[in-house]
Amino acid sequence: MENLIIFFLFFIIFEAFLIITIQILKKDFKWLLNSEDEFPQFSKERLNKFYKESYDPIMGWDRKKNKTGFELGKKKTFFQISKKGYRGKSRFKKTAISVFGDSFAFCRYVNDDETWESYLENKLRSNIHNYGVGNFGLDQSFLKFLKYKSNIKSKIIIFNVVPETIARINSYWKHYREFGNILGFKPLYELKKNKFILKKMPLKRNSTQEQIYRIIPYIKKYDIFYKSKFLKYKFTFPYSFVFLKNLQYFLNIIPNLVIAKITGKKSYLNNAVSVVLKKNIKDSHMMYKNPYYFEKLKSLIFYINDTLKKKKFHMILVISPQLLDLTEGDYNSVSKFYKQIGKRISCIDLYNKIRDKEFKKYYYKDIYGGHLNKLGNKFISKILFNHFKNKKII
Question: pTM higher than 0.90 for the full model?
Answer without folding.
Answer: yes
